[in-house]
């Protein structure tokens, strides 16, 4: 039993220590692509970042600039009155679904650990309170839709989400604040069928964002040229 346990631990350790990403660009500087989007440091030393293959070796600025040409019309806002640990997960999911911006409402500081560095590629805006968020949304002609399983809320399933909108989520465990409920055009709930009263804010945000994606996003692969294929480990 002990030998099996030791082997399992060693295997886990090996997996954790294994490198991810791509190695230095083969052939040395003479073989580097003549393209300003590529980062010389990454070409020289390899790219271990958690980025899609099409962005390997690109500088941070080049990746953000490309994302900015394709961002979707929805925004995500989350209330942050007690340093909600879900915010990092929300930011990471917003990056994955190419949200226009993430809005932090309340405390400026938030736990970035769950974001896995995706906040570097995602526009994040702070609002001191709900009133400031709503004023900004009104100035941009964006309807604010709350997401919470409250009495009188309507099902997210089947709801026609606007192409341009703000999806607003409350603080974990307490849900949307009274101010947020009052300001939302509609409050949507996610259908549940088990015994738990609710799902956490990070999971709810992912479901709501994906609902927008299924209604509005172009699902065709993004055309790509000019980068070596998957001959590198990744």
From TrEMBL:
Keyword flag Oxidoreductase: no
Pfam families xref list: SpoU_methylase
Domain of life: Bacteria
Keywords (A to Z) from UniProt: Methyltransferase, Transferase
UniProt cross-references to InterPro entries, sorted A to Z: Alpha/beta_knot_MTases, rRNA_Methyltransferase, SpoU_MeTrfase, tRNA_m1G_MTases_N
Location of region: Disordered: 1-33
Annotated GO MF terms: RNA binding; RNA methyltransferase activity
An example Gene Ontology biological process: methylation
Domain tRNA/rRNA methyltransferase SpoU type: 74-210
Keyword Protease: no
PANTHER family in the cross-refs: RRNA METHYLTRANSFERASE 3 (PTHR43191), RRNA METHYLTRANSFERASE 3, MITOCHONDRIAL (PTHR43191:SF2)
Name of the protein this chain belongs to: tRNA/rRNA methyltransferase (SpoU)
């Amino acid at each position: 039993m002990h030998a099996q346990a030791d082997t399992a631990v060693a295997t886990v350790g090996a997996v954790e220590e294994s490198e991810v990403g791509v190695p230095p660009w083969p052939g040395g500087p003479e073989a580097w692509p003549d393209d300003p989007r590529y980062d010389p440091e990454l070409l020289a030393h390899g790219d271990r970042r958690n980025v899609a293959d099409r962005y390997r070796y690109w500088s941070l600025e080049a990746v953000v600039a490309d994302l900015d040409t394709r961002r979707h019309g929805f925004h995500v806002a989350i209330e942050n009155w007690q340093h909600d640990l879900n915010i990092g997960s929300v930011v990471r999911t917003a990056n994955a679904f190419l949200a226009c911006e993430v809005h932090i409402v309340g405390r400026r500081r938030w736990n970035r650990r769950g974001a896995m560095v995706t906040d570097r590629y995602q526009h994040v805006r702070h609002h001191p309170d709900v009133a400031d968020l709503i004023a900004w949304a009104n100035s941009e002609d964006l309807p604010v839709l709350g997401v919470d399983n409250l009495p009188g809320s309507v099902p997210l399933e089947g709801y026609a989400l606007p192409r341009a909108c703000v999806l607003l989520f409350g603080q974990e465990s307490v849900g949307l604040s009274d101010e947020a409920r009052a300001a939302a055009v509609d409050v949507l709930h996610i259908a549940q069928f088990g015994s738990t009263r609710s799902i956490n804010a990070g999971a709810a945000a992912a479901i709501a964002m994906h609902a927008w994606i299924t209604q509005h996003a172009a699902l065709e692969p993004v055309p790509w040229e000019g980068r070596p294929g998957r001959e590198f480990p990744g």
